[in-house]
């Protein structure tokens, strides 16, 4: 008889580190699943063994078939809930059929090895993920720990950070919990020239970053941004920017297209909100591009890519977006929206800023034709202005904010 539960057991260090109650669960397994390294730790267990590699769908199917009549144990390194297999199995099997027994995570072991607290650290991974995705994260955080893999090695990470102009103290904690455990310490330049064990945790440490850490996520004053013609107001004003970003409803991993990015004010604040996502700032004006690039560099954002060119042509080849902001279309609104409609992910949003009734009418017609529901907001902002000892209100140009979602999708 079985309890119809898959036991996901975290293993840290050698067998001697496994608590007796957990060892008993592993010993009673009839189907033992795990990476080849972990399975080799239990040669005497009389159970069918299935190694996990690039066969996760096969593993899940096998578990589903075995659950009703066999005791299934899945071995995982450290804490299965920390960049581990528990996420995949709970999503596939349901939480009611899973019991998770955590071990000590590799992050915990790494910080213990270097004798640093980790309650203020940012944890991430470049395992099967682009290294570029963590550059912005490293810029913003004074302490980052990364899981690496055979393709995204510590030396490759170090080279990418050097190219981005970042300096950090580096610790590489290798073969944690084994007799071969060792800790490397050095600069990014030294790390870029060194080879490491494939089983490692990379820790990047800098001094505190008071200037950047004190920046708000949104609400930067307009004067913070380099602008081509500040006297003409060619920037999405702070108040309009805040409403537009709220309408975009970004998640921390959103992919965003900012079309007609101008100075990049929307891209920059979107990047701070979608810190694990990516923003593609599309701009055609050479003069605006100069300021846009300067602003991205000034705010130290590694998750913003500047795309030079006119939409819709410049949008070809970009990853499908979760959200699209259109601050300018260069007179090609209908064509731009048609392109966006074909690429927008399910549940995505389009937010458009418009200054004229004619452009509002064109955008609304195009969106309706493409099968979108729209919500239109007119934003009238007036700012206080001193006149001698008195104060008056000085209005800004009114802006229409159109938010579009596909018909039938949740708003």
TrEMBL record:
UniProt-listed InterPro entries: 4pyrrol_Mease (IPR000878), 4pyrrol_Methylase_sf (IPR035996), 4pyrrole_Mease_sub1 (IPR014777), 4pyrrole_Mease_sub2 (IPR014776), CbiE (IPR012818), Cbl_synth_CobL (IPR006365), Cbl_synth_MTase_CbiT (IPR014008), Cobalamin_biosynth_MTase (IPR050714)
GO MF term list: precorrin-6Y C5,15-methyltransferase (decarboxylating) activity; protein methyltransferase activity
Biological processes annotated in GO: cobalamin biosynthetic process; methylation
Superkingdom assignment: Bacteria
Stored Gene3D superfamilies: Cobalt-precorrin-4 Transmethylase, Domain 1, Methyltransferase, Cobalt-precorrin-4 Transmethylase, Domain 2, Vaccinia Virus protein VP39
Species of origin: Dehalogenimonas formicexedens
Keyword S-adenosyl-L-methionine applies: yes
Domain Methyltransferase: 252-311
Entry keyword annotation includes S-adenosyl-L-methionine: yes
Protein name (record): Precorrin-6B C(5,15)-methyltransferase (Decarboxylating)
Broad EC category: transferase
Biochemical pathway: Cofactor biosynthesis; adenosylcobalamin biosynthesis
């Amino acid at each position: 008889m079985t309890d119809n539960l898959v036991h996901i057991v975290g293993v840290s260090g050698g067998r001697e580190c496994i608590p007796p109650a957990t060892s008993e669960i592993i010993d009673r397994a009839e189907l033992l699943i795990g990476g080849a390294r972990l399975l080799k730790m239990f040669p005497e267990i009389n159970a069918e063994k299935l190694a996990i590699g690039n066969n996760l769908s096969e593993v899940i199917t096998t578990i589903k078939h075995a659950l009703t009549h066999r005791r299934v144990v899945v071995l995982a390194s450290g804490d299965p809930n920390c960049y581990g297999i528990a996420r995949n199995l709970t999503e596939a099997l349901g939480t009611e059929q899973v019991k998770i027994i955590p071990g000590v995570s590799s992050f915990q072991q790494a910080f213990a090895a270097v004798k640093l607290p980790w309650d203020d650290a940012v944890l991430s991974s470049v395992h099967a993920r682009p290294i570029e995705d963590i550059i912005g994260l490293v810029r913003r955080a004074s302490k980052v720990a990364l899981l690496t893999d055979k393709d995204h090695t510590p030396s490759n990470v170090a080279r990418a950070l050097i190219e981005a102009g970042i300096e950090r103290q580096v610790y590489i904690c290798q073969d944690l919990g084994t007799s071969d455990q060792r800790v490397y310490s050095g600069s990014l330049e030294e790390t870029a020239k060194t080879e490491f064990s494939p089983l490692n945790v990379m820790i990047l440490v800098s001094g505190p970053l008071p200037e950047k850490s004190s920046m708000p996520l949104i609400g930067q004053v307009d004067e913070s941004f380099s602008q081509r013609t500040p006297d003409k107001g060619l920037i999405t004003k702070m108040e309009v920017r805040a409403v537009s970003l709220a309408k975009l409803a970004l998640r921390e991993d959103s992919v965003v297209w900012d079309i007609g990015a101008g100075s990049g004010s929307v891209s920059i604040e979107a990047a701070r909100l979608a810190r694990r996502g990516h923003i593609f700032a599309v701009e055609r004006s050479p003069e605006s591009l100069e300021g846009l690039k300067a602003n991205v560099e000034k705010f130290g954002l590694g998750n913003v890519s500047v795309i030079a060119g006119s939409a819709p042509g410049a949008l070809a080849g970009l990853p499908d977006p979760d959200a699209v902001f259109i601050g300018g279309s260069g007179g090609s609104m209908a064509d731009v929206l048609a392109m966006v409609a074909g690429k927008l992910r399910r549940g995505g949003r389009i937010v458009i800023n418009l200054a004229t009734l004619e452009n509002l009418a064109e955008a609304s017609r195009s969106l309706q034709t493409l099968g979108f529901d729209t919500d239109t907001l007119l934003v009238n902002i007036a700012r206080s202005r001193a006149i001698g000892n008195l104060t008056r209100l000085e209005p800004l140009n009114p802006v229409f904010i159109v938010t579009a979602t596909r018909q039938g999708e949740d708003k």
